[in-house]
Amino acid sequence: MLKSTELQTKLVEVRASTEGLTKADEIKAKISEIENIQAQIVLAEMEENEERIEAEKEFKIQNKTKKEGKVDMENKNFREIFAKAVIGTATQEELKTISNLMVEGEKGKGGIAIGDDISKDIKVFQDQRRMFDVRNLINVEKVGTLKGTRPYVTNQPEASGFASVDENGDVQALYEPTFDDMSYVVRSYAGFIPLTKELLEDDVTSIYNFIVEWLGENELNTYAYQVFQGTGTKSAQGIMTETKVGGALITRTEKLTVAPTIKKFKTVFNVDLEALINGTETITTNSDGYDYLDGLEDKNGTPYLQPSVTSASGFRFLGREINTVPKKFLKNVTDGADTLVPFICGDLKQIYTMYDRRQMVVESTKIGGEAWRKRKTEVMGDFRFDGKIIPSALESIKILLAKLA
């Protein structure tokens, strides 16, 4: 976890601890502590940004390196060998250097598992493009098996808790928790692209960069689309799909025929999300929703969207973080003649878990599909995960679907 993220979590805890303080010296001490943490966050983000810039420079330097003539196998650029293996021009001697990454593919075709070095290159590309990564908003659990179950409590403890007991009296029985199992099935998400003759004739570094960019963009797009729009049938569950097909989240969804007021948002946080007392609730919306929030002002003309150095977005709304999701993932909802904009209020990390197999594989062929007839090389990317809505965490989310105009 990034240091800045840890500090932001600490800041939330300290702010929560100020509730109920009445003594001036205690309040001043907490304000001083909050300001100190905020300053540390700014410094941490500066350091992390410098590290990212250095990583980007290193990535560019490596990709500009082009070796000519015969080179010893021990010194040959690993990335070049990977690219040559994908397009089928690597020698047997070269393939030996990455034999630990070779995997068995579909119908006997060979494939190459993405190693740490290439994963880092993909991450650098994603950071350079500042691509949206939904994994920052949800809970991600690494799994080593394709199938599994996770238990969850289906009933809630009694509000009264322990009962008062007289001396020598009998202790009363408490409620007995009941459990159910939630199953996950890690599925493959794959796609292929034909490499043109012009690209295949290009230098190996350009081919490698093309593959990294293609994988990097489609990986994050797949995650984001499935989390919000997945069907739940032979795919991950989608948060917005569940609100439309009568899934569990339908009980936590409210349609508004008018734009939500400040009072409505306050009621959602104060009443509908009363179970969240740790300050982790956020508002997740798309560009239409963000634009609406950005236009809300009080009677003095002061925007409700306030700058915040501790927020990833740079702003907070009613003290909550704003997560803006591209509209191609978090779409507006069509309800008859109305277009409804989603505002997902609550803690997405509690309501949604991605079970990530952490295994990306690249396969290629010159003889399958239309590759043989058109003399092209087809490259396929394949990675595996599942996504589930946690039934026991429904009280940690409230979805408003609002007609803004």
TrEMBL record:
It comes from the Bacteria. Residues 27-63 form a coiled coil. Keywords: Coiled coil. InterPro entries: Phage_capsid, Phage_capsid-like_C. It is found in: Virion. The keyword Cell membrane does not apply. Residues 110-391 form the Phage capsid-like C-terminal domain. This is Phage capsid-like C-terminal domain-containing protein.
